[in-house]
């Protein structure tokens, strides 16, 4: 018996449908949207603020709309997107967005989140925060939109601007507390009331493609503040503020910073550490490929007297400095108090610090300052291939060291550390 033959017969409508499907897929691919991204989009639930009553006119309070959209997204059993639509301004008061969530959540900011201009919307009990993400795993914040802290009113009422005002905390624009596998990317953060972004008690963090901007005279407006967090990467960011571009504080371990442009501001700072006789532990910090323009400091480590603990295994390398006031500085006698700090014997130990391939110009003669503790001297400090000149060729640069053990190699400085200070200089 002859084997049976299977024949597939396609009707004209079915052929047309197949052709249309192929054409749509080809069109999607040609527009830069892969089949994979289409599948990912279709597998996500989208929760738009506008669907929860948001006005987006910059004057009506949209806090509850975002809170409801977040609650729905966080409860979603499949990956969810909280959408802040474009071309709108959503006015927000203090808001905490908490996990854990059932699946991953992406907050896509296309428009602008703007802080209430009314300082009375914050009580003295919680003046330090504006938008807070807490205890969320697999959180992504992106979208290319903006977060506007509306900080001008706060700056005018800061004791650092108006000496008649009492010194009080002001909100941080974006805070991330106890988050794991966190990504913040392609976002503009402007005019924060105080710190622009704070990463606290987080693990496995990627901060990429951020633009952070505030007036150079705005008080305490750090760009990115990192504390008690580990395995953090900061890449391809531009930061212009009135304080540290990056402030790296107690409990930070395994941090890599690269391709960052900083200025105006106070530079890249580790510390302050050891405040109020506290213990601090910082290690595994690499700051690589950074440009600083007109900052008050370049690569800085600052600790208070009376502290304890360590700051170790730190590298600042491949840095370009333009008109920087203090290009390289370690200060174990730092003090930012209303009253002078008293001399104390204990200190945070600073060791195994490398400054490598750093060049550019300084507006102060002391291009390198190592001001270390008498009781706990800095040690294992390496200066390699340092070439810093006075801005406009106005004289020779200098370096000073107190209570520091350091080596130098390929460093172009006419006047090394004075021999009257306790220091060991080894030229390789």
UniProtKB/TrEMBL annotation:
Catalytic activity: (1,4-alpha-D-galacturonosyl)n+m + H2O = (1,4-alpha-D-galacturonosyl)n + (1,4-alpha-D-galacturonosyl)m
Pfam family, one: Glyco_hydro_28
Signal peptide: 1-28
Gene Ontology MF term list: polygalacturonase activity
GO process annotations (BP): anther dehiscence; cell wall modification involved in abscission; fruit dehiscence
Chief site of localization: secreted
SUPFAM superfamilies to which the protein is assigned, alphabetical: Pectin lyase-like
InterPro entries per the UniProt record, alphabetical: Glyco_hydro_28, PbH1, Pectin_lyas_fold, Pectin_lyase_fold/virulence
E.C. code: 3.2.1.15
Gene3D superfamilies: Single-stranded right-handed beta-helix, Pectin lyase-like (2.160.20.10)
Compartments, as annotated in UniProt: Secreted, Cell wall
Alphabetic keyword roster: Cell wall, Cell wall biogenesis/degradation, Glycosidase, Hydrolase, Secreted, Signal
Family per record: Belongs to the glycosyl hydrolase 28 family.
Protein name: endo-polygalacturonase
